């Protein structure tokens, strides 16, 4: 007789019943243990260990060799949903392939990042797709569908979206609060998450480190009020690393970790990522929270149920039925071809005065120069390269190595001190091989090597290549290309292939010594210590194994060596020589993703580093046929270059095939069709503050920006030309049917990215100047045309109506635009839409929520309570809240404010100001009502000014007849 499986293992039973059965078999301790990122096995039930979290932003990260695709912002630049879906599928297959070899590999992938690229100085801009919510949503839906797979029950991997919510700054990221008014919340930040969740390929979200409106994201009521109402599917919320502890340790939002952990769990956090693999700290907090009555077992079971549903979807309990269990596809020919295709589609041609494409068959030489000319840069969320193609590699392969010359443009220097010249010993003097498990040099291992001899000082100088990455941050390399790096023992060695690691140990800064002509100290940025020459070698003064990796561990003191810098050759001189001797010059500039802008570090400027600015200027002065190829994770303010040079291109770091892709674009093998996923400005002076999240009030992003950008959102040129004809737009039920014909009027086959924008012609409130509602990348042969149709939900024309607390589509005329960028509009038409007029605010019936203002100045939104609600407080004396079109009907007799703190609230109607005094309350959450007479009638604007430490939650008016 065949033994029946336990109900929780019976695939014939409904999933809910299986989970119910398993839950009742688990002890309380076993259920609590499942709430940590590293959930242990339950051996008595035959259940294995499980971990949430595997990084897979643009390829499998942190698990060694993998196919490396372009950075996320590069995938966004393709504007190609189908391509990105195929990339997601490839990445998901490689996760599965690694899982097949190592069951410690997690199938819950923490990707993609859908935070909107609101501000170009954000350090993690490389991780997002676009500044636009619609484009971000479309790319995220595509990537998650690829990661998830097409099986109706079992998932290839389980994607988690990062980072909920309104997270665009690394500066003080765990303590800063994003002030997000309701309109921005509903029209912008939530939108990026909502569409991907509703598409059904998302397993959950990860809250961000920051606070929103004064409340940490890890206890946000929006997790239940918004996220989990968008779908009937179970969603898992995984905390960011260390964030549960931040609720007490850095944010001081709760007094005890038990309170914080209970609040996060009740708010909807299911999996706690804290204290690495040591789960005892978090499980202890949960247990004590239960004992203190802050939680009950129902709270535990709710979270465990979600986690179990995730595990079931990944086939854990049905290994014989899991269609993805035997996946072995890693570094396949198809994946390599896809990586190249993605890199090619991500290249954006910013400017071309006819210099491009270059004819591979024409005579002449090409000089490939610049600090990134022979580089294939990785970022923090990359896998280890199996294949590597730099721009120099790509151009040599496509145009012929004998026709290509190279000059990096690093400054060549020697350093001298009282003990002699800085010397780099022969690497063979070390004892280690420095090789990874598969025989390839692993930069992460090389950077920490202690087996190589440290630098010394003596009679024979070593030549160093110096690169200044901007903001005074520099790297130094030996003649063999090895970067100077500081290991745990504090000694300086030439040991790293590239800068890298969570704390970069390969970056330095000069500090000029007063009173010493030409004298400089060398500061190691990773530790904050000074480079010092001692008898046993060069090390960072005051750094030992316990101190390493922590900034500020050393003072200059007598141990800080003073160096004199001897310049052997300026980089621009080498570049000028190479440029003068060539027929065409390609200058490759950009950033290193581990320096001056990355996780934990925002940028301070849009300017190209001065070192690289000198290189392109020297190249162009020597040879006017100069192409600037920007390889970067971020936009730059290239105003002078755009005005001076005949051709400019941009691509994000393109992964393993970056060089091949660039060469195929330069040669005309592929016509460029990448499009900018964010606005490129002429200067950071055009930007609001990094922490200003009010895109409406400060007119941010292409949606509201009123200036003239260097290059607009959606911009990108082609080697062909395209015409747009026959634009139509008509209402069809709950959708607009928009159609347009795109024709390739040029002489080469090429891709075009058709873009559809809308704008309200007579809005009652501030609305976007243009808003993307559709895009399509299509390939057309010369002379070929294609009619394309977009089904635009009418709700896309709407906005969040703060006067009535709802989404609304105003009746009236809307302009529909078709074109090649946000500003390159080829055709327009107008469609009239029926809708519901917003009407004035019914303030006698509903009052005024303080955060529902139309305009503000000098205020921020804060938390009304620790669990729910908003209030507003002043950040500057001349603050103002403006509420338009408030309907007082026949009249009012009193006004009452709900406020905490101390001070007053001034309410101005028709030029008459009424002051409501707020006596000191018992803390910031002790909101009390305070009233005074006020007379107003009809429809009027209301202006509110806050004095003192007042936190205003609500204003209520009493009618004259009441």
In brief:
The protein is an alpha+beta fold and 962 residues long. The chain has 5 domains: 7-313, TIM Barrel (Alpha-Beta Barrel); 347-409 and 571-686, Rossmann fold; 432-561, Trefoil (Acidic Fibroblast Growth Factor, subunit A), CATH 2.80.10; 720-833, Immunoglobulins (Immunoglobulin-like), CATH 2.60.40; 843-959, Galactose-binding domain-like (Jelly Rolls), CATH 2.60.120.260.
Descriptive account of the structure:
- This protein has 962 residues and is an alpha+beta fold.
- The protein has five domains: 7-313, Glycoside hydrolase, family 3, N-terminal domain (TIM Barrel, Alpha-Beta Barrel); 347-409 and 571-686, 3-Layer(aba) Sandwich (Rossmann fold); 432-561, Trefoil (Acidic Fibroblast Growth Factor, subunit A) (Trefoil); 720-833, Immunoglobulin-like; 843-959, Galactose-binding domain-like (Jelly Rolls, Sandwich), CATH 2.60.120.
- 21% of the residues lie in helices and 28% in strands.
- It has 20 helices and 47 strands.
- Strands 13, 14, 15, 16, 17, 20, 21 and 24 form an eight-stranded antiparallel β-sheet that branches.
- β43 (903-909) and β44 form a beta hairpin.
- α9 (257-267) packs across α10 (280-291) and α12 packs across α18 (658-667).
- The longest helix has 21 residues, at 81-101.
- The N and C termini lie far apart (80 Å).
- The model is unreliable at 429-445 and 543-556 (pLDDT under 50).
